[in-house]
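Per reviewer request, we include the raw input and output of the structure prediction for the construct analysed in the revised manuscript.
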Amino acid sequence: MAVNKGKSVALFATCLVDLWRPAVARAAERLLIKAGFKVAVPSGQTCCGQVNYNSGDQKGARKLARRHIMLLVPFDYVVVPSGSCADMIKNHYPALFGNDLDVQKTAQVLSGKTYELTEFLVRIARWKPSRAGGVKRKLVYHDSCSCQRSLRIYKEPRLLLEAQGKYDLQALTGEDRCCGFGGLFSVKYGEVSSHMAGKKTAAIAATEAEILTGADLGCLLNLSGKLKAEGSACEVRHIAEILAEEEA
């Protein structure tokens, strides 16, 4: 804990969290404070620019990236409760400024201090959740494409959930498959997206899990909608909300 004392963290809340489930940001903030960091949620943050980037709007993506580079780089760390947004800041911001070396250099500095939430809690903070008792509920974890493919995050959320001791983590068939969200993909190719989500919800149902969790709200909103349409009683919660339960 002493290692973290006085270190500053900028919590990049993400636009989906801000608009759809602000409780995720509040939970992430509690976890980071519990881990010993001084946490700020910088005003002026907007969409990270991923939508622009994925749709080919490089100019718009650079405009948003430039805003956030200047906003976030003064902090010791930047933590994001989303694999996709963390991936955008960490891996794509520097590539956007190949013709502007000064901005690219600053973007690379920001890249080196940016982490997805569970990655940060395990690798940097070395934090473990409070141990809970009682009867364990069945839970399944969804790996987003950004986390598992771009950021190479797999064990970190599972280590945290196992350390909490409150859930019986179920193995998910096809855990490496996309849920069909993919941002604009789900809008442009709705039928394909729905089919992919159905494959995932069928695998979730097979586990008889009571709770579905993950680190990307976009995926969780997508799967939540599909589960609700299918009449499932499976509860869907972001991992920050799960981990913060015993930390209030």
